[in-house]
């Protein structure tokens, strides 16, 4: 009989490194969203899964099952090799598919017959998502956010990362979204994470925090295509707000490091998206300057004429305002303020 386990039980044993989660869904499903830390050992390729699904809908369930069995039998030797390696390093393997159905059941039955200590995740990835939707709002309620604000390019993300290096809890929302939050925010980063994956990464980070004081960067409600859930956004709004300023030369330098790649195509594509906010004439001029690699001019212009005026619309009661010159000095000032004013 196949042994099942709920995600809450997996989470409790995670500290002991007892289980590894194995996602048997297709590589495409895995890339769109999975449980953080899970390993993808797909039962079917993307093409096989698509064919099985099409036959299931358009022809018959039995024919789809037959195709599935034939495809799985071809894939089993490779699956066995991967499972065998995982089994050397963990006490138990927890397999999951979309809903805890045939894919995970089949793999668990196969590996159990080979002597592997295996479990099937109750209700699969869907069950995990239900758990996250229940637990994440409760987790956020216990947290006091220290929200770091500042104009584009002041280095807020770098400050967050240094705070984390110093051992403090942070929440890198832009990192989990894989987007920097502005209309140019996807340049050089590739595909954005899905909403589901974003929420999973946020939960995974917050559940492992060391304290209830969490540093986070000030964001609008939307980060690219990602929407920050209301309970997180509202908790950030009611948190403690800090403003960081910086000389425009430092800001230009930071933006150059973040956005300018060897290939200008993404930058030009993003500039074209600004046509509804900035005159056609100016956008054409900026694209021309980018083509000539005159990046500093374009960045400075966009900051002064577009981003800075837009930022001025953000009104908060800042508990601390400081000028950022040296990252360690800035972090020390922020931490000293937090220790003096909050319960660490």
TrEMBL record:
Q: Which SMART domains match?
A: RHOD
- What keywords appear on the UniProt entry? Selenium
Q: Where is the Rhodanese domain?
A: 15-137
* GO terms under biological process: tRNA wobble uridine modification
Superkingdom of this protein's organism:
Bacteria
Annotated GO molecular function terms are: tRNA 2-selenouridine synthase activity
Entry's PROSITE patterns? RHODANESE_3
> Which Pfam families does this chain map to?
AAA_SelU, Rhodanese
Can you tell me which residues the record assigns to a coiled coil? none
In terms of PANTHER family, this protein maps to: TRNA 2-SELENOURIDINE SYNTHASE (PTHR30401:SF0)
Q: What is this protein called?
A: tRNA 2-selenouridine(34) synthase MnmH
- From which organism does this entry originate? Clostridium aciditolerans
């Amino acid at each position: 009989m196949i042994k099942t386990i709920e995600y809450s039980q997996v989470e409790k044993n995670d500290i002991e490194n007892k289980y590894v989660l194995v996602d048997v869904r297709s590589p495409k499903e895995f890339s769109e969203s999975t449980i953080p830390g899970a390993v993808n050992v797909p039962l079917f390729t993307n093409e096989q899964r698509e064919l099985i699904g099409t036959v299931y809908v358009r022809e018959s369930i039995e024919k789809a099952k037959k195709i599935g069995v034939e495809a799985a039998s071809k894939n089993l030797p490779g699956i066995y090799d991967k499972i065998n390696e995982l089994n050397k390093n963990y006490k138990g393997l927890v397999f999951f598919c979309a809903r805890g159905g045939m894919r995970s059941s089949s793999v668990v039955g196969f590996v159990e017959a080979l002597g592997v200590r295996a479990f099937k995740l109750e209700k699969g990835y869907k069950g995990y998502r239900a758990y996250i939707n229940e637990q994440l709002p409760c987790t956020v309620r216990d947290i006091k956010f220290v929200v770091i604000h500042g104009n584009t390019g002041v280095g807020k993300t770098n400050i967050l990362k240094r705070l984390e290096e110093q051992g403090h809890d942070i929440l890198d929302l832009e990192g989990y979204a894989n987007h920097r939050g502005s209309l140019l925010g996807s340049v050089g980063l590739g595909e954005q994470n899905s909403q589901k994956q974003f929420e999973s990464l946020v939960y995974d980070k917050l559940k492992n925090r060391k304290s209830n004081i969490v540093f986070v960067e000030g964001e609008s409600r939307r980060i690219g295509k990602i929407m920050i859930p209301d309970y997180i956004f509202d908790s950030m709004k009611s948190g403690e707000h800090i403003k960081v300023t910086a000389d425009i030369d430092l800001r230009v330098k930071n933006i150059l490091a973040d956005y300018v790649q060897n290939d200008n195509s993404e930058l030009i594509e993003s500039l074209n998206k600004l046509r509804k906010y900035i005159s056609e004439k100016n956008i054409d001029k900026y694209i021309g300057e980018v083509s000539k690699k005159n990046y500093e001019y374009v960045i400075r212009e966009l900051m002064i004429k577009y981003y800075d005026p837009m930022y001025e619309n953000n009104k908060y009661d800042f508990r601390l305002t400081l000028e950022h010159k040296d990252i360690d000095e800035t972090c020390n000032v922020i931490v000293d303020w937090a220790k003096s004013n909050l319960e660490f």
